[in-house]
Amino acid sequence: MERTLSIIKPDATERNITGLVNAMIEAAGLRIVGQKRIRLTQEQAEEFYKEHKEKVFFPSMVQQMISGPVVVQVLEGENAIKHYREIMGATNPAVAEEGTIRKTYALSIDKNTVHGSDSPEAAAREIEFFFNHTEIVG
Ligand code: CMP
Q: Is there an atom of ligand 1 within 6 Å of 91 CB?
């Protein structure tokens, strides 16, 4: 069993499709064992994505992430990190595979509906960033 951190992004909360995204997560066999709807501050978004700080897209990505509420989630399952990345699809929805969350719902590379941790180290850091132990119930 493994856990990963998911964020349902502002483009999805704005369109009222968080339940539709959750349905795809659950249909794929991942369990949502922690979940809360929050609004990120600019400082939180910059800290969360600090590994991208030097990228040209960093400022617009941060602005997008603070443009509305997000739903942060802990997902649990076998190979949850890799499994979630598979069902999310490619970062750029234009090249995401059919049937993935991003192919189905994402609007653009910035409005790409979901984030998922990309490694065990990232998952541990990102889960701790948003959740304490009492908020994760497996
Ligand atoms: P995410 O998985 O949340 O991680 C960083 C985010 O930056 C990514 O999803 C995209 O929404 C956003 N982004 C914008 N432009 C790019 C780009 N050229 N390459 C990668 N990520 C990008």
A: yes
What are 9-42's pLDDT values in tens digits? 999 999 999 999 999 999 999 999 999 999 999 9
Strand order in the sheet with 2-8: 31-38, 70-77, 2-8, 114-116
Residues in the chain: 138
Residue 20: predicted pLDDT: 98
User: Would strands 2-8 and 31-38 be described as parallel, antiparallel, or unpaired?
Assistant: unpaired
Report the percentage of the chain scoring pLDDT > 90.
100
Decide: helix, strand or coil at residue 19.
Answer: helix
- Please state the separation of Cα 68 from the chain's center in Å: 14
Residue 83 falls in the annotated catalytic set: no
* Ligand 1 proximity of 113 Cβ (cutoff 6 Å): no
End-to-end CA distance of the chain: 11
